Hints:
By secondary structure, this protein is mainly alpha-helical. The longest helix has 31 residues, at 157-187. It starts with 16 loop residues before the first helix and ends with a helix. The chain is built from 12 helices and no strands. It has one domain.
Amino acid sequence: MESTKDDLVRPGTSGGLADVYRERFLLKLLVRKELKVRYRGSVLGIIWSYVKPGVQFVVFYLALGVFLGMEQSSTNKGGLANYAIYLFSGIILINFFTEALGNASRSIVGNGGLIKKIYLPRQLFPVASVWVSAVHFFPQLLILVVACLFSGWHPSLLQLLAAVAGFVIVALLSTGLGLLFGAANVYFRDSENFVDMLLMIATWASPVMYSWTMVQHKLGEMWYSIYQVNPITIAVETFHYAFWLPTTDGSAGIPPHLLSLWIPVGLVVSAAVLLWGQLTFRRLEGRFAQEL
């Protein structure tokens, strides 16, 4: 029986992120493989997921909380109450974004040998990198929750849902940018340096180590609104709202319209970046094997 034109399927045609769902067993294997490779020969293993952010937190807390006076005390009323919780709730989210995007942008080149040998959905590699970063994120989140409980944490359901929305925003953004720069890095290796620079900017341009009120005071309402469009800024503020604010008397407040405006904006922007990254990836992936 002759095949009609509609029956013919071009070999190696990508179905995009839908292929990642269909090949979720392969995704699970890739995540497991990345975790094993990363900690092969390591004495501490996954404990490094606690050590690195812990050291980072101590350095930032001493430099900013103690030496620069960001911690509120009896002699410093202008600081932030429970600054340690404020700082750590932002750090773990920024670390998730930094690790996810950094590894996803290098994932295609790093798996070049496998890509040249067999065909499998190439989107699996950036997505697997984001999942590995999530594995490292949740133990840090557990430490944050324990610290919050010792500080009198009393969150509402709305605050917990805001935290989930913040995580989703960062996950979508990391995946979208990971697909974009992962594909670009095959053709232009300068992309790795650009990503490193972008991650450095993201760390300092988000209100992790300082209050949003400082930004609003310095920039004014119009420029502050532009600053607030950044999905990372929105996500960090959701974590402050969910984890830090319930450990204080609530007088510090949150950015205006965080729940009604900025969280939806963050979700829309991150989803748009994911779509952009996916379209770019599908357009460029046809020559990955040749370029690698």
